[in-house]
Structure formats: C-alpha cells, structure tokens
Specification:
Blueprint lengths: L2 H5 L3 H11 L6 E5 L3 H16 L12 H7 L6 E4 L9 H10 L10 E5 L5 H12 L5 E7 L7 H5 L2 E4 L11 H12 L6 H7 L6 H24 L6 H7 L4 H19 L4 H15 L2
Parallel strand pairs: 1-4, 1-5, 2-3, 3-4
Helix pairs in contact: 3-4, 5-6, 8-9, 8-10, 10-11, 10-12, 12-13
Bound molecules: zinc ion.
Zinc ion binds next to helix 4.
Length: about 280
C-alpha cells in the first residue's frame, strides 16, 4: 500500500509521502472527506507510514507493522469508535489520554485513530493532549465535515481535505484553477484575483474541487509558516511569506465558508464575487 494507492496521484498523497520520508509527520492530523471510508483508509495509511520499519519508501505495505495495521491487529494502533451511541464521549478520550503515556507494545510509537464524531467535551479533553502531546504518539482524526470539529482542535491538527473520489491529479483543471487563485492572492492589484476567481463560475462540482484545493493550500501555507521549512510549492510560499498566520487562518475560513455556501446551493456568480472580495479582505 502507499498514499497514492489510497488517495490517487494528487497533491495530498505527494505531500504525505514527502512528510513521511523527511520524518516531519505531525503529532496530530485530520482527514476530512464526505467519503468517510476514504478518510479512514487514509488515516490507517498514515499510521502505517509512522510505524513502518522499512528503510525505503514508507509505508512499505510489507513489513510486520504494515501488515498488522492493514489487518487491524496492530497492538499500538488504537481505534476509537462511538460504540452503541452517536459520538465518542469525554470518558473514552480520557481513557485514551492515560493510555498514551504507556509504552508501546512493539513499535517505536503509538497511533490513535479517532474514527467517529466526538462530543464538544471530548474534543476539549483531546485539546489538552494536543497542546502538549507526549513524544512518540500520533493522533489521527477522521471527519465528514470540518465543521464537526472545534476550531481550537482544528488549529492543532494538520488538516487534509480529501475529495470523495480518487480522481485528483496535478494536471486537472480544478487544481490549475486553484493554483491560479493562490498565485493571485499575494499580488497587490485586484485584476488577477478577479480573473482567477471567475473560474468558480464554471460549474458547482468544479467550484467545489477548486475550493477544496484552496483550503488545502492554505493549510499548507500555515504549516510552512509554523515549520519555516523548504520544499513547498512556490504558490504556497507566495502566500505564507507575506501574510501573517492570522490572515492565512482567515483565508482558510473563506474557503470553508464558500464550500458551505456551495452546499446551500448559492448562485455561482455570487459565490465567485464573494470569494474574491473576502480573499482581499483576509489580507488585512
Ligand atoms: Zn512497512
């Protein structure tokens, strides 16, 4: 298995692979997708990448650790689910927190896969451990919608938005349209941004894909800002360098609010104008 085999040849798969190879995996990650099965598969893949013992490409899919994760029998990969109720409660999260200080059974670390919705109390309990995570522990959240997670939790996790299907690739038009918007953001003149955001009028599905990419770009820009490392695409650095963290968070919120508007059947011309105006506003 590999990130590509689960996610297709996209920006996300590439990004996860590069984080793995350079040992920069986050303490906490979240996968959002309307296709929750896809989000859970991606989360397992990330767990495999973290615990894989191969010296080559990780996850290798062949070592003992990878195979056990694939078969759901790895003792150091703990899955939290809401059994017999709607959400994972604060009790389960507290139990998880005390467990995460216990040494792993056979790997160099432990991974907690949070596969169902959490109550707000549970998320607040989780937040404490995300603020000071013990070393060698990774938390991976999956969610159908980012709005189900508290903003405070979101701000402590590396968010990956997955399109419900695997069709993403760098050559596709929506990706290119998102890159065009990203490149227009740091410019001081309005025209390029106006032109770039007009692509949102193409179709609803197209607009959704573009906004999903943008949300991902803003997450990457924020990450670049925190880590200050190289290896990001020029359009990510183009956003990260001149803008403050708070401005990038605003941009991220613009992308998510626009997705929300889209899900409420908003008119595409209105959407495009709104996105353009709010992106400009976010820079101040
Ligand atoms: Zn492996």
């Amino acid at each position: 298995m590999s990130f590509e085999s689960v996610l297709g040849k996209g920006q996300t798969a590439q990004h996860l692979a590069s984080l793995t190879q350079s040992n920069r995996l986050p303490h906490a990650a979240a996968f959002q997708s309307e296709n929750i099965t896809l989000a859970r598969s991606a989360a397992k893949e990330l767990a495999a990448a973290y615990l894989c013992t191969s010296e080559n490409m990780r996850p290798c899919g062949e070592c003992r650790s990878c195979r056990k994760i694939h078969d759901d029998i790895h003792p150091d990969v703990i899955t939290l689910k809401a059994v017999g109720k709607q959400s994972i409660g604060v009790g389960e999260i507290r139990e998880m927190i005390s467990d995460c200080y216990i040494m792993p059974n056979e790997s160099h670390g432990k991974v907690y896969l949070i596969f169902d919705k959490m109550t707000p109390e549970a998320q607040n309990a989780l937040l404490k451990i995300l603020e000071e995570p013990p070393s060698g522990v990774m938390f991976v959240i999956t969610t159908e919608q980012t709005s189900l997670l508290l903003k405070t939790v979101l701000s402590r996790t590396m968010m990956f938005k997955l399109s419900p299907t695997k069709q993403i690739d760098d050559g596709n038009e929506a990706f290119q349209a998102a890159v065009e918007i990203a490149r227009a953001i740091p410019q001081n003149i309005e025209l390029p941004l106006l032109g770039a955001t007009s692509s949102l009028m193409n179709s609803r599905e197209f607009a959704k894909q573009v906004l999903d990419y943008l949300a991902e770009f803003f997450t990457l820009a924020l990450e670049q800002k925190y880590l200050g490392e190289d290896g990001y695409e020029d359009y990510i650095i183009g956003i990260a360098r001149p803008l403050r963290k708070s401005n990038i968070v605003k941009l991220y919120n613009v992308a998510n609010q626009a997705l929300e508007m889209l899900s409420h059947n908003c008119n595409l011309t209105v959407l495009s104008t709104w996105v353009c105006a709010n992106i400009r506003e976010s820079k101040h």
